[in-house]
Amino acid sequence: MDVARLRVLLEEVQAGRVVVGDALSRLRDLPFADLDFATVDHHRALRQGAPEVILGQGKTAQQIAGVARELVRAGENVLVTRMDPEQAAYLAKELPQTRYASLARVAFVEVRPIAPLPHGPVALVSAGTADLPVAEECAEALRAFGLEFERLYDVGVAGLHRLLGHREVLDRAALAIVVAGMEGALPSVVGGLVSIPVIAVPTSVGYGVGVGGLAALAGMLTSCASGVTVCNIDNGFGAAFAALRILQSVPRFRLTTNGALG
Q1: Which of 163, 184, 218, 257 has its CA 20 to 30 A from that of 207?
Q2: 1-5: long-range contacts (C-beta < 8 A, 24 or more apart)?
């Protein structure tokens, strides 16, 4: 249950088109449903603007399918992250409308149309091809949240002309998400070029002292570009949700890179 559907229901009750008993029946699962192995939060879309998202990692295929069925029964779309192909195959048997993106390791079950957010696109920027699994996890989450985005991939600092050759993508963006491994320098470059919010995502890509993404994380946390926000290592989903929170909370206009209201 999200804000839009709750408003429609209350308006129908007020107008006499829905009786109180029927309305109570529709609301019976708020705020949660107890499945014994999981407590499904049906109130989350009301609080945060997006339904509960399932983390596939550490769960059995049966547990994932159980939570997904409950969300579908409540009329919610289902997003599952960190899902392996075997888990996805089981979910597709249970819910045939399941769509699985193998590179992103994300499954999505669309029950109702995704309402787009009325904002300019998110620039989804990645440093290298090895960062694509994290960037694509982010892309799938952005799509599920109704956020328009444009990909700008393999434009890392080893060949900075590649980024500057597509400056128009950054210029029309409402927000930028920058995914990078190695030393994690790309978010600082993007942060120095734009006035929009920049969310940095370190990846566990790199050699030796990269230490599974810790070097990129440290570099991003100590960025000389003021105001760059940093997510956890490999957390493309977290960056997408941060973008959702930001863009839900601001007016439709934004500051363009030259400081004018757009």
Answers
A1: 163
A2: 1/26, 1/27, 1/29, 1/30, 1/42, 1/43, 1/45, 1/46, 1/74, 1/75, 2/45, 2/46, 2/49, 2/51, 3/45, 3/46, 3/49, 4/115, 5/75
Q: What is the CATH number of domain 122-248?
A: 3.40.50.1970
Phi, psi torsion values for 136, nearest 5 degrees = -75, -30
Q: Where are the domains of the chain?
A: 29-109, 122-248
What does the H/E/C string look like for 111-124? CCCCCCCCCCCEEE
Q: Angle CA(53)–CA(57)–CA(59) in degrees, nearest 5? A: 90
* 157-192 pLDDT tens trace: 999 999 999 999 999 999 999 999 999 999 999 999
pLDDT, residue 209, reads 86
pLDDT category, 256, cuts 50, 70, 90? very low
Residue 21: partners with Cβ closer than 8 Å, 6 or more residues away? none
State pTM to two decimals: 0.81
